[in-house]
Amino acid sequence: MEFKSLNNLYELYQSQADKFKDSPFLFRINKDKSTNALTWVETSRQINILAQYLAKQSVSKGDRVMLLSEGRPEWMISDLSILAVNAITVPNYTTYTEKDFEYILNDCQPKGLIVSNSKLFDTVSSAAKKINYNFKFIISFEEIENILNINQLTETEQNNFTSEATRKDPACIIYTSGTQGNPKGVVLSHGGILSNCEDAKNLVDKLEIKQPRFLTWLPLSHSYEHTVQFVQISLGAQIYYSPIIEKLLENIKIAKPHVMTAVPRFYNNLYNKMSSSVKKSSVIKRSLFFKTLELGAKKFKKEKLSVFENILNKILDKIVRKKIINNFGGNLKAFVSGGGPLDKNVGLFLNSLGLKTLQGYGLTETSPVVSCNPVDDIRIDTVGKVFSNNLVKIADDGEILVKGENVMLEYWHNPKATAEVIQNGWLHTGDIGELDSEGYLKITDRKKDIIVTLGGDNISPSKIENLLCLHDEIEQAYVHGDNEKYLSCLLVLNKNIKLDNTQIQLLIDKTNKSLTAIEKIKKFKILDEEFTIENELLTPTMKIRRHKIKSKYKIELEKFYKY
């Protein structure tokens, strides 16, 4: 496929649909564990039907259409239909509150709404009423009283649409998670996403899988998974959807994916569950597991194995690693991690067990991927090689700067914020890093989240929070200490594990051993309430809202420093 010749994302889809035609494409997993598949031809027909309706509603170039749904085949169909009429998709998280919708409706003024179910419709409808906002049209995937259902639409013409969008035209507006305040609408271009797809496809192609299977479970409103769907199209992939998180492991066994994309929290949980399970197993199983880890790590680090170790490692491939891979459907070739830093111990753990894990790096503003580890040379202390279509340089203060077609067009109707992050064509990421001679990028700090103590020391709280959450007993952590003498933290514990303060202190002490003197935690407090999206202490992408936590627990945090 020649990506450079493609003008837009819909053209990418059309070229693949013409190629794969009657091959299965989009899979729905039913309650009885059976599956239904749409072929590329059937998908094209449904896209055409919806696009015809949008055109009749005068949806055209530059118009915004809000898309609010969990992951399902209709999402892909809707997104491509919007693009077919040269309009702009505005994906929204299903976890957004009324307040979030009020802000977004006011900000981007979408012409219409495509929504999956009545619960989501009620939330956005309530927000619209509060600000007297009227959609020109509303379409639903499931039955909603007095709302046009997508299945009621009929085909009026046989001709497929041909998008006139160029690579420089907006394809979507994706709102940032708002960790520091109100979200900003990131405008991504067709060319920016296509540029990302080209490098991502080249990366997956090295796995040598014909029409690979994917299990989509992350929110498609997140820039990471939103772009992944177009990567899947470019690969001619088969896509299974798992909209219910609780059924993820069950659906993995049904889909039998070759590739899975996930955020670090998924891999941290996997690490904790596997470690906990091993602790409860027999002496023989524990011994085999730890030997698998030992030899796997040695091989991964390209250390020489003895003849006996080589033989033993091959045996462990069959009796340990194969069993682990079978738990993920039996076909898994690679995990891809993005959306935040992956702890290198977790990365080594998974790779040593035969679960090839590729860590990448990016931002919503970069469509989103900047770099990713190649399948044949993974370096877990890095976020991989910079994509060939991207330019990266390190500023004098260590900040990572990115330039290329993948960089966003703008923050929607926010020229001031746009000018603050894009200077002379270079996007200022807010991340501190290093770039080696082979093009591997390493993230060393976060500029915006840095704690500056009274002693003038710069400390990354996320690093410490990640280490704390590697303990099975700790679910969530918030590290505090800006303009203070030392660091303290708020902890949310695993509900299934009962611990007293002495036992928690032992965990803190264990974490402190791997930290420098200025990074050590001096005081802590256990919270009764989790950080959740509902209480606004987590963003829809599951990142902690530092300013919200600081405000809510102001009194508790101040007590750390009174004595």
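(the above was protein one; protein two follows)
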Amino acid sequence: MKAFKTSKRVLSSLIAIMLLVMSCQSFLAADGDEKKPLNIPEITLENLQVRGGSTTYLVDNPPYSETAPTMRDFDFGPGSDNMQDAYIVYNYGNEVMIESLTLVGWWPKDQAVKNISLEYFKDGQWVTAQENIEVPWQTSGGTEEEVEITLTEPVATMKFRVKINSAYHSWSDKICMHLMRPNGYIFTEFKPLTDAIAQAEKLVSQVLIGDKGGEFSQDAVDSLNAVTKEIKEKLDAGLVTTDDIPALIEQIETAIEEFTSSQNPMENAPAAEAENLTVSLGNTNYLTDRQISTGMTVSFTDSENPAYLTLDFSGKNLNATGLSLLASSSDKFTLNMSAEAEIDGVWTEIAADTDFNYRCDVQGTEGHKITFDSCTASKFRIKINSSTAESFTVYEILWDGLYDTDTSAMDDLINKANSIIKNPASSDYPDLLDILKIVLSPAENQETSILANQGKIDTITQLLSEAISAFDGLAQYEKGDVNHSGSLEVEDVTLIQKHIVELLQETDFFDESLADVDEDGVISIKDATSIQITISNKL
């Protein structure tokens, strides 16, 4: 038999007081030991859509005014054309004992839930606790009413769900509830372990995978997944005791450390520094690693003074037009920020104070850009004047701009290297040719010419020069032998003529250094004629 306890509230404020008392009550076991109240679970909807409010209101809904309504609305509706397979799922992370369900409806017999079923997760599947419960609302109109449904037998589980079989729809398909709270106590406190598992799972689900700087290898992802999967399977199978939890958490944390340390090294990334910020999680390396999944959780060390996030490009100038800060918090918040650049050794404001509103209830990680007129410097910083959040997480600092560099020497060597590669004679030296191709690859990479600092470009230029010089002296060709055939021939004449009229093809090998036969500093038809004469004299 289902047991129901109903009461109509004339004064809605009495409900708020009662619920507040209930939320803080202690559960005493028969032996006198105190039972720990339920934690606020992770709440998700299946085949239902949020229409207003927060899912948290379903279990934690304090009053927001002195007059009715005293509690916040959580409005939701069907996720499809019908209410089939519509669930509210409560994931506690701990093993909990569920004894009852408290419902507080607003306009109960007009817009509240009507018929529900209760289910719990056990041995990898959902089990019915009670089904087709007709909620005995007594009230119509704009008032609150509380109903408590007591389970025939308490159930032990980590996840509990309410199936919405039907609802009252007096004027729309919106369902309005103030509370749908399972009641009970924590049976075994697994939450720290499940939080650690969730942290690892979230990390590997969001990282960029590949061979580029800042990315992670698939092997590293698979390794961390294997650790969390093994522990999760033990937990789901009931093989984890309270005594096991600290060691398992440490195992996950160690695996996360090993994973983050396996990140492909970043090239050309500036050093990031934080000032007047206390770091509770992560480090400054995460701010420029091109990974939104890795971040640094911070709070003001001294709220009376501004905080700074500095990008140091190691003396290499960046011509920038904007800085973006990707951040989030547990709730929406505002950062008042400006931008500065170090010019002639002095920090100079390049963008004035502006409020940037991070919504966070719309999307987890959010970016806002500080724009300014083109500015060239080797150090830039974001000045955070204030924050409405006690703590927040910074995931990445991005910049709009290019390094102020000279690539002319590298570009010349790129042309020489391609000439050597096209030369059939170069195939006689496969090892040297392979080295040249390896060095040529980063030089031709567009990212190098656009994003690399001068030091990186100078290094690549030097390596390319050394790879090219390895071919010097391997074969000596006379003036006019532009195709490196080993002798002057008609094809040399043709190639010079094509060069003059700019009709050389990419597949044509042409050694420009041998084309100026008369050494007058100009490649002209006279050089082609000179080769023709030499060929004729040999006949």
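Reviewer note on protein two: The first helix runs from residue 12 to 24.
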